[in-house]
Amino acid sequence: MTETTKQLKPDKQQSSNEIRMPGPVVAICGGVGGAKLALGLYRILEPDALSIIINTGDDFEHLGLHISPDIDTVTYTLADLNNKETGWGRRDETWTFMKSLEALDAETWFMLGDGDLAIHVERSRRLAGGESLSAITASFARNLGISANLLPMTNDKFSTVVKTKQGVLSFQDYFVRQQAKPCVERIDFDGIDSASPSDEVLAAVSQPNLSAIIICPSNPFLSIDPILSVPGIKQAIRASSAPVVCISPLIGGHAVKGPTAKIMTELSFPTTASAIENHYSELIDGLIIDLVDRDESVDISRPNLVTKTLMNSTEDREELARAALKFAKSL
Ligand code: FO1
Fold first, then answer.
1. E strand or H helix at 269, and its extent?
2. CA-based, 20 to 30 A from 175: which of 154, 207, 219, 225?
3. Which pLDDT tens digit goes with each residue over 294-304?
4. Closest Cα to residue 59, out of 50, 51, 68?
5. Domains of the chain
6. Residue in 70, 88, 187 to alter for ligand 1 test, most ligand atoms within 8 A of Cβ
């Protein structure tokens, strides 16, 4: 076989002013919103200083492939391969595979780009060969030049299931096929009783010199709760000596992207910063809210930081990451 040229490893685009944390940092992250802050942390911290615990509740079997959307969003984001318009998948995609599927009258509601397809096919092959999701994820990260530890929350089956007025829907059916339109009544996690955290997740959270645990601004119900619901993860976080800081995913009562505010309303949660604080009340030491929510600061009982949390540019991502780590150090 001709030696294919190895994918050039983009050396980590290091931010000029790296921040020296006394110890490693753990980020808890779901999809698009969380991945933005994860990138900010990645760019300002030293190589290997960052471990990212990633939601796998969105994973599903589709066209015979095992798809791990949040793992892929974080992987592509840190490898600078991500599609910045959609927030998911790769940029500069081609869609020959989807066009061919359509001609076969196959399912095309879940868009798989030709480049993106490689990760799903290779992951599925290696899972079928008995490798763990953690080992495969670490191997992909290494091959794509990522010097952070990408940690699936569990290697076990764990699926977010959305109970709506239209019946019980798998996550991707609700989120993509139905465009998150159905009214949510309850969110359940299949596999919650039998899943266990990966060894790497427990090791990351129990590092003796851990300097901060950052809950990224992902959807609390769809992206962060699945991670905290894996038996043992919440306990491990509480046992950690590191300060736990959450960045609210709401700005002015709305989510930056996605159905967070809609779901909060449907689950009759007020779309306020203090509702976010209460949601994580067993875990967090501090909360970061946006400038527009400054007035809500008085309703928050824990230490809180009011700063810009909207991340449009790379600098915004780095700035918020720096602010979060500095705030964590002050707790
Ligand atoms: N989201 C969509 O709204 N439409 C899609 O067709 C779609 C395809 C897709 C393919 C790969 C992948 O990793 C993610 C994809 N997503 C798509 C996003 C995905 O549903 C969400 O990113 C997460 O599950 C929620 O954060």
1. none
2. 154
3. 999 999 999 99
4. 68
5. 13-330 (3.40.50.10680)
6. 88
